[in-house]
Amino acid sequence: MSYQIIDRIIYFRSNPVNVNVKINYNQSLEFPAVTICNQNAFNCHWSGLPCGPVNFTEHLTDYGYCYRFVAPENARSTGSDNGLNLLLNVEQYEYMPGPNDAAGVKVLTHVKDDHPRVRELGIAVPTGTQAFIGLQVIMIHNLKKPHGQCQYKSLKYFPRYSYDSCLAECYTNMAARRCGCRDFYMPSFNDDLSSLTETCDCPTACEYTVYDPVLSYATTSDYAGQRLMDNTNITALNAKLKRARETTHRMEERKLRSFEKNVQKMEQALKNVKQLMEETIKERIANQIENVTFHYKNIMRVTQKRILLLKYQIYNVQKNFMRGRDAMEERTLSHLCNSFHEFVFAFETNLRNIVGENETDIKRVFYINTLNMIDVRTENAKRSLANFTVLYNAYVTGTPIFKYKFLNFARKHNTFIVPRLLMNDSTYHNS
């Protein structure tokens, strides 16, 4: 029993959280604010009744100059006939070169007091289509600490806290802090930059509403298009088209002169920069060529010196060591083992002659001849041992046997050019 009580207390102190999802069927819902960018209102109906410019307010967003529709009352029924119906003319003939190449409008549904992030969250609607946007209202209630992480913050430019409004204020403060300016759509009170908020922490709101859109399209019929054209003042549209094209392709004289002046300044500045860069680059290239040439000559000089020393070293080893070994092998070492079986056969023959011969003088001759053969072999072995000792010591200590001279190098340098480690290692390896 005590264990269960303690376990429940520990569980309660861990601040457990449950997520509850509840579907409410309300009699009426607050209709969201609808921000529409890059369009001109041509026809408007709300809940089956006509609406006009009074229902739209101009609004600056991150997507440009837009219009916002705020419903005068709550929506009391579902369906497209009870919502907002707009017939829009995007007036493509007034489009100017810019960052947005698409033709159509961008629509964003949001809470009235929230800052509209049209560029990031807006829905693109192309021209020549009927777009049906259904909305699902999702109201989220988060818990405060310690059960959750939500909290409210007081915003300077917005009366109601939301994540989007906090993010917009954050961008405004960041732009003002880093470059001393702000984008055209960012909120401001025209106050000093030094008093702007320096923090950009945007926690999750404890209560907020999300309008989840469901989008479908249908192509505008030829009949509807023809009926629209019949009810439109073609003359007025032609005049607007002509004026828009003239504005697009022609600039005001004052602006044109200012633009030409700026172009001339830019060309002169670029010319100065180009001249400076050419002089600097030429100077640096000349310095690099000089440095490369200097280092190349040094490397070639060192390389040639090393090649000469390597040739000197090879010559010294071949003439003062290997040639001595060849001479010793030719004079003594090769004779020590050559005709060995012939010597044994002659020695055995002399022994048989000495034993088998009755004459004392003849035996003495064979005996003396045999002793002479043994003495010759013994002396040759002693000389071979002496030569081998000299050769071995020369390879171990690096002392040259002969004193051949290489080019104009003095003979006293022969000792210093000997590769002693290699010569010493060669005594342990056979080729």
Just give the CATH class of the domain at 24-140 and 211-219.
Mainly Beta
The quaternary structure here is single chain
- Report Rg: 53 Å
Q: What's the CATH H-level superfamily name of the domain at 24-140 and 211-219?
A: Acid-sensing ion channels like domains
Please write out the topology.
Layout: H1 2-13, E1 33-37, E2 40-46, E3 49-50, E4 56-61, E5 64-69, E6 84-89, E7 104-110, H2 118-121, E8 123-126, E9 129-141, H3 163-179, E10 207-219, H4 222-230, H5 234-249, H6 253-337, H7 340-356, H8 360-397, H9 420-425
Antiparallel strand pairs: 1-5, 1-7, 2-3, 2-6, 4-5, 7-8, 9-10
Helix pairs in contact: 6-8, 7-8
Highlighted features:
about 425 residues; alpha+beta; Acid-sensing ion channels like fold; five-stranded antiparallel sheet; 10 strands
